[in-house]
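User: Second chain of the day. Same drill as before.
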Amino acid sequence: RVADGTLFAPSEDPVAYVMRVCSGIYPEVPEVWPSKHSDEALTWLVRSQVGADNIEVLADDAPERAQFGARYAVRTNCLAHCEVREGLESYGGDALFDDDWRVVAIVRQERVPHPAIEGLVTTTAVSYTPSHGKSWAYIKFCFRSSLFSLVTFANHLYLTHLLVSMNMTIATRETLSPDHPVRRFVTPFIYGNITINAWARQALVLPHSTVGRAFAFTELGLQQAWHAVRECLPASKRSGCLPPLAAEEVAPPYCSKYTQSRKQFEAAASAFAGEYLESFYPDGIPQQP
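Assistant: Same format as last time:
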């Protein structure tokens, strides 16, 4: 559909049209996606794209391992209980992948009337597999939508802005003098945090702000989502301290383009910080009494 409401004809390529109009400002895209709706595309989305930071490696005794043969999971069911506006689908879905990264199931906590209390809504687990045909295509759509929403809401807004960046800003300003070498080092990385997070509170956090309007939540659902946001993050990230990559994350079959790029960045950042600090503390950083 173009600006005046005209639909593309079956023989027209909407992607080619957009690239022709916007090619001068559109970023280079190194990946090729023959199909955005296939099971392989879902694996790519989770393993190397927006879901890569939320991958959970399942233990050998995990129930999903026994039931579906799953080794990896990316979960969005933490938002399944959140109330949504009438006519919109609820969030949720835990995508499960086997040892070779084939998607084997999506388990959705679906909202249903409470069996014993009239007017109350509860959730029940429903499992979908690639054999479910059209239902499988729809459930993949629900999971993709839930994943984009969760990563935007939990990983980006809450974890990156409100937790990690604010913790670093507060700790730096309250404990280090303006001329301290470490404060001077981190200042470019936290510059403007207070201003941007104050704006984010007004524009994204409060009721009736952008998140409340753009997402499917009702006002109550948004409050429920904020209450659950910490549980939506992988356990290793809930403290706000981002751990380095574990050994299994950089070895096959877990490793991906995402983990390879992250490993390279961590190594470069560590080397940069080490050389900087060594220039101020050639005999090592003095220990505080």
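The mean pLDDT is 88.

User: Great, on to the next one.
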